[in-house]
Structure formats: structure tokens, C-alpha cells
Amino acid sequence: xxxxxxxxxxxxxxxxxxxxxxxxxxxxxxxxxxxxxxxxxxxxxxxxxxxxxxxxxxxxxxxxxxxxxxxxxxxxxxxxxxxxxxxxxxxxxxxxxxxxxxxxxxxxxxxxxxxxx
Length: 117
What we know:
Elements: E1 4-7, E2 10-13, E3 18-24, E4 33-39, E5 46-52, E6 57-59, E7 67-72, E8 77-82, E9 91-99, E10 104-107, E11 111-116
Parallel strand pairs: 2-11
Antiparallel strand pairs: 1-3, 3-8, 4-5, 4-9, 5-6, 7-8, 9-10, 9-11
């Protein structure tokens, strides 16, 4: 059973930075892609950023230029560096991993990020 464990959330002032980490049990090379999602209170979960096995990244328009996703295969870890944060970034952030065969999708337990104005 794959486990994804997030860390790095917390309280930060507007304009500040946080780095989230997602450690997977076992190698992350087996996953087609991994990503960070977030869910604010009363809103649907949305994709923040993703990274493929080959290292191709994508991110939501709302975080482009501020957030960066990266991965360290040796540490089985995916990171989300968040800079110049705003109160609109306040949400629970979830790590996600998808593999093609057998087709599976995994989620972490989430980490709370709160940005104060």
C-alpha cells in the first residue's frame, strides 16, 4: 500500500514563503505523475501543480510565477515551493500520485496552509 505523507504546512504572512514536502513509501519513479492539489473551505479541490516522471511540470494560472514543483527521486519526495503567498492561497494542500498499471491514484492526508493578511 502506497503512503504519501505531507509536511511543511503552517501559518505565514502575506508575501511570505513555505515549502511543502511529500514523502512516498517506496520509489516515486513508478508514478506517471505526481501533483499538489488544494481545497479551500467551501470550495472544490483544485490542481495546483504537477510533475511527470520525466520532469515536465504544469501549474495553475493562479500560482504561475510564484509556486514551483520539483521532485527528488532519490528521496522519494516531491516538493512545492510557495513564494509571495496571498490569503487566497489558504487551503488544505494534498499530495497526489498516479500510476498507469495497475491504474491507481493515491492521496496524502493533507497539510493546512494559512496565509494571514
